[in-house]
Structure formats: structure tokens, C-alpha cells
Amino acid sequence: MLDLVNIFIDNMIPVLAIAAVGVGLRRCLDIDPAPVSRMMFYVFAPALAFDAVYTSNISGGDFLRLYVGTLALMAMVGALSFLLLRWLKSAVSTPSKISPREMATTLVATFVFNGANFGISIVSFAFGAEALTYAVIIYIAGSTVAWTLGPYVSSSGTASLLLSLQSVLRTPVVYALALAFALKAVGIGELPPALSRSSKLLADASIPLMLVLLGLQLGGFHKPDRWRLLLTGTAIRLLVAPLLAIICATLLNLGGAARFAFILQAGMPTAVLTLILAYEFDTDRDLALNLIMTTTLISPITLTLLIYLLQSGIV
Question: What is the pTM of this model?
Fold first, then answer.
């Protein structure tokens, strides 16, 4: 029990404390998270991706295994969630039938995980710089699915997968990652100090800014409702997904920091992107907010246990 308390204090309290600053800024000063989110999207997240990959010793094979493994894991989580929600939809009584909008929102919330704001920070605190690199790759792979399958599901299948894929090509992180691998491929092992220090400063600033942004976003959430869907979505996101990740990590023969990052990222709460998709495709915004809030508030408990199991070598 003491080990669990220490893990919570060492790894969760710093994350929650910084996020609480964002909540306070939103509640007291009414700071809009939108411009901060845009800065993160166009500047800080690409810098973090570039610096993490360019300065690491990760091989192309390890990258491919993590990338494909993340895609496979999210597909498994999405498929299981779809089957469970279909069963739940047919099992509930007529007055409380699950609508297509609620179905789409909950489904997206189960496979779109917060690998950026929450995941990168916690993996870094728990397992260090080496695991951070793997966590960034997993976040990028997860973003690929989130920006393709996410819009498709949110639109109940009316959005073209090709059009959804085009949104990935408008994501700066993709180009930052490609640039890092290109420089490594041609043998440029060190950038001029002006460039390397600039990217490093932006990368170092990205993690605390991600947490403040998370707090700004959480500061606008309200009282949850529709507990049947909330409990189902939360259980899949925080409990089932990491269990499936353990199986995937074993099949992919992932070890060390890569295994830790893969499994821990799988247990992260629902990403705020779920809400963005709800606005864009007119699914259930309130339910999206509630799923994000509920999974984020409960995840420190489940993640503390997951870190303990990983550090102890139990999983």
C-alpha cells in the first residue's frame, strides 16, 4: 500500500497540480483554451515529436512495431466497444434506448486516448526519457487513428475515410516526425546549436503547457449524467484497453521502456479530441464532456495501480 501511495505522489500529484493551475485559470480568469490549443497543435507538439525522435536511438523496426501495434490495439478496443454498445443498446428498456449520437460519441471516447496532455507527462515521470520517446510515437500513431477513424465514426459512416485521412496530412506533428527520421537517415547526427537549442526549449516547454491546457479544458466541464454509458465507456477506456495492450505487447515482443510506454499509454483517459469531433459532426457534446471528465478524474487511481504493476514486473 505504501508503494502505491508513493507512486501516486511521485507521478500523479505533479500532473494533477499543474492541471489544477489550468482549471483555476479557466474558472477565475475565464481564459479560453482555444488559442493555447492552437499553439500546442502547431508549435509545441511538433517540437516535442521532432526532439524526442531525433535525439533518440530508436530503430526503424522498433518504430514500426510500436506504430502498427498502436493501430492494432485501437482497432481491437474500438471493435470490442462497438459490440458491447450494440449489446447494451438492445438490452436496455425502450424509454432509455441509446441514440445513434450517443453510440457514436461513446464509441469514439473508448478508442481515442489522451496520449499527449496526460500520457506523455505520466510516462516521462514514471519511466524516464527513454520511455518518453516511445510515448511520443504511440501518441502520434494514436493521432492517426483519431483523425481518420474518429471523424468516420462520429459522422455515423457518412464521412469519407479518404477525406478523414486528409486531416492527418494537415497535422504538423506528422511532418516534424518525417523531418526527424529524414535527418537521421542521411546521417545528420547533430544540428547547429541555434536549431537544436530552439527545438529543445520548445520540447521542454510542451509537457507543462499540455497539462495547463488540459486543466483549461477541464475547467469548463459540468456535472455528469447518463451513468450507464459513462460507466461502460470508462471501464473500456481505463480497464479493458490496458489489458488488451498487455496482450499486444507480448505478441509484439515489446520489452523494457517500449513495453512500459505502450501499456501505460493504453490506460490513459479519453482525449479532448472527442469533444472536438462532437462539435464538428454534431454528436452528443454533453456526453463527450462527461466521458472526458469522468475518465480523467478516475484515471489517476487506475494509472497508479498500472504503474505499480509495471514497475514490479507483474505485467
Answer: 0.84
